[in-house]
User: Fold these one by one.
Assistant:
Number 1:
Amino acid sequence: MTPRKGERPPVPERLPAPVVDAHTHLDACGAKDAADVSTMLDRAGAAGVDRVITVADDLASAGWAAEASTWDSRVFAAVAVHPTRTKDFSDADKAVLEELSRRPRVVAVGETGLDYYWDYSPPEAQHEAFRWHIDLAKRVGKPLMIHDRDAHADILRILTEEGAPESVVFHCFSGDLEFARACVERGFVLSFAGPVTFRNAAPLREAAAFTPVDQLLVETDAPFLTPHPFRGRPNEPYCAAYTLRDLAALRGADVAELASAVSATADRVFRLRNVTSDDAGSA
């Protein structure tokens, strides 16, 4: 029986070593409360995805993500206003984000950056908001999680002008080998989502094969960007296992070794091991 497009992919065989989904949107996946989050993380755990970072793109989702990270010790959060939502980015919004970003289970400022594909916010507003988020990340001492769509040159220019935070993560990296080299040389971390598994994404796959393992993360960006061969179907954190296995094959790496290395990078960049479970529910 052919699966329907709206059905989730099957939960894959458990990875031989756990991996972190470095960027997902649990609320957009359909989670509303602690029970939903626990169910989703149980499904992820069955595939070997043992922890996730749920990421905000507006004020409402920032508040939800910060709260959700206290419901389950397997969940961490990142907060920011997405570049496409920066047209009316106010001082009141900034005050809310600053407070949320200082919470112990909020481990990054993101996703922020530039998006020249959509025209919901003018470039000037995006640039101003991006610069503010860069400053926030430096003030609170947390990684900057970047959304970069059709804006490679301006992203690097603004990071140079403002001075990049200690840790910078390019979420759903979308560049080619040349751009990957430029990011890696600057010490940035590249996080790869489902598109790296697409067989028509040769430049992206070349970039993923090149990226040093200690600057490499895996993510889902769920519910979007479901990996091959389930493109177009709903994504969820457990699908990071599909992407991890595909990356291992692409790089000629052992699956367990790559999963362990990716998790070590996530632990280092987001300081996950420094976050206690005291502020979260039991997994």
Number 2:
Amino acid sequence: MSSSPAPPPGSAQLRADCGRCFGLCCVVPAFARSADFAIDKPAGKACPNLGDDHRCGIHTELRQRGFPGCTVFDCFGAGQQVAQVTFGGRDWRDAPQTLPAMAEAFTVLRPLHELLWYLAEAVALRPPADLRAELDRVRAETAALSAGDPARLRAVDVAAQRERINPLLSRASEAARSPGGADHRGAPLLGADLRRVDLRRANLRGALLVGADLRGVDLGLADVTGADLRGADLRGADLRTTLFLHQAQLDAARGDVRTALPATRTRPAHWTALALTPVGQASRAGGRGRRGRRR
């Protein structure tokens, strides 16, 4: 008698557990010297900051040392899946010949786990029954793909799976945002001042919000799937019900103690502890700007 398929991974399995990984995010990807990385590193070569224990030697100083790109990378739990499940705990340092196959598996599992994260978020929105059934079906299918051995993972067409899933995620978003707000899908909003723009229930999927001014903005039920929030100013913004908001997006942005977050997200350590003067009150504050500061 065949065993029933394993259930889709839970939230803990889709969260990076570096203690159970072999530093794959510090080995597999390539990165180039830029504002995000202080050095060039080719794919498949360990970062010089990676220790023998698979821990980053400058983890607490990444931003100060020129590696902010490392602080916003999320493997969605693919690292420990490859290390502990796909390769059964076999360390690439002890078996260097496994590294190419391990890297291949990681490059497939990481996007699959990301899709599983989005699917879990979509299900949590309580979509209509027919859509919920479709989401459950593709979620189970994606989980089965992610449980494959190295050979099966090599055969996975990630792009095709993403094309099947994205329309379902869009439908879940539309149902949750109904009646929908403004459509800014893929909009080039780099550095834009959006403080007076109504973004409630807006579609911001894939929007380029790098450096955008979102201070005090209500992003309630706005869909930020894939939105680039690097350097975006979220001080005082309301993100409590923002859809598909990932921790990495928050880590890439700026905020303060008044930025309202969902209960399931963490306030990044680099965000300022100072409160923003409420939008519209700056002119009245005048020279008293320091009075509202927390010391």
Number 3:
Amino acid sequence: MIVSNFLKRAISGLLFVIVLTGCIFIHPICFYILFFIINILGLMEFSRMAKHMNIHVNLFFCILCGSILFTVGFLHNYINYKDGYLYFFLLTFIMSICELYRKKGNGFQNIAFSYYALLYISLPFTLLIYLPYMTSGKWMPEIIFFPFLLVWVNDTFAYLSGSLLGKHKLFPRISPKKSWEGAIGGGLMTIIVGLCVSPYIEGYTIRDTAIISCIVAVFGIYGDLLESLFKRSIEIKDSGNILPGHGGILDRFDAIIFTIPAIFVYMEFMY
């Protein structure tokens, strides 16, 4: 049974990496289609999680607003993106007004969670699109892929370091299995890998890759802990079951969701 679960987890994880990497590098349209779907699935998972607390996210408007936000970001070089964002903000206000007519109860929480779903899920995926254009002004898949590579390295070596050396709990109230040794081991390897691949990331200096690696090492952990906090609040193990052995979309993207805004802020200040 243990071997079977391990194989299932390994195969689904490998397929996930292959599909995501392929869609990033093959063509921007492939990236758009994949992450458009991931954005919607993430919003749906968030909505299901909220229902455990008798909170009813306005899923229709969340998907509509999140899709517009992501699409406007992707097409920002081809359309008047300011008009697109105006439509987005207008729809978010309409979403609030609609709560008057839904008769779901917990109206204040419904609105708050609906806004947070967009802030937590759709906004980071949209900011991811802008990263290549901040240095080179063109689509560069390696810059899109770089944070994912670092997150995977951080997660893998944090797990290995924690399993072999972990003695001091990092945040036992939220995630009893995480240790300081794991966090330090994962962080150091993330920085090393970031510096090693630096020559292959056009538009990034060694300073950029080093700082982005540090950002991933820190914010990736907080992204993981935050999602663990959500799940503990409603007493569930996984956010979903779309990936056998790995859970749901939010389980797989929790670190990257929290990391991308921090990288974007750094790049905005530097460039």
